[in-house]
Write a structure and sequence with these properties.
The structure is a single chain. The chain has 173 residues and is an all-alpha fold. It has a domain of 117 residues: TTHA0068-like (Hyaluronidase domain-like), CATH 1.10.3450. 47% of the residues lie in helices and 0% in strands. The longest helix has 21 residues.
Length: 173
């Protein structure tokens, strides 16, 4: 990954030899917190892990409704598999995780948009499952949730309580 160069700040020269800024603490949904706050988001170093391990962690986090880490794990899988025919699968799972993050943050539009995109991407894989994911069932639940959330937005009502999907049934974990 290339180093990111921050945009120049007028009247605030940056010392090129200065150490990088410390990572900002985050809440459980990935939102930045004040620098002095306790970091509430603890994630694995996905870049150092294999696709298989990242996918396993993505499933584990998703099933525990920790959607931000699930999204990050699958986003890493997608980048690791970018030139393969599985890239869209992992991109779709990542978008489903992000959709549920938006839902939990109260962003109805972002939630239903990403849930639909993610469901559309994973539907291109075998209906009987891919890498342990029942893609047809997961996509159907995500699309139903997207419809409910969009209906609430259009009706100007709060998002209804939704039962989050699981990739592995409780008895399989």
């Amino acid at each position: 990954m290339s180093e990111r160069t921050p945009a120049p700040k007028p009247n605030r020269p940056r010392d090129p030899n200065a150490p990088p800024k410390p990572a900002r603490p985050r809440d459980e949904l990935g939102r930045p917190l004040p620098h002095e706050a306790e970091n509430l988001l603890h994630m694995e170093d996905y870049d150092s892990l294999s696709v298989e391990e990242n996918h396993r962690l993505g499933v584990e986090h998703f099933d525990a409704a920790r959607f931000f880490p699930a999204h990050e794990a699958w986003e890493t899988c997608w980048k690791q598999m970018k030139e393969s025919d599985e890239a869209e699968f992992f991109k779709g799972l990542s978008q489903l995780g992000a959709g549920y993050v938006h839902l939990m943050r109260g962003n109805q539009h972002g939630a239903y948009t990403l849930l639909r995109r993610g469901a559309g991407r994973i539907r291109g894989y075998p209906e009987d499952g891919h890498r342990g994911v029942d893609v047809e069932q997961l996509a159907a639940v995500a699309l139903a949730h997207a419809d409910e959330v969009e209906g609430a937005e259009k009706g100007g009502t709060p998002t209804p309580e939704l039962s989050f999907p699981r990739i592995r049934p409780k008895e399989a974990r």
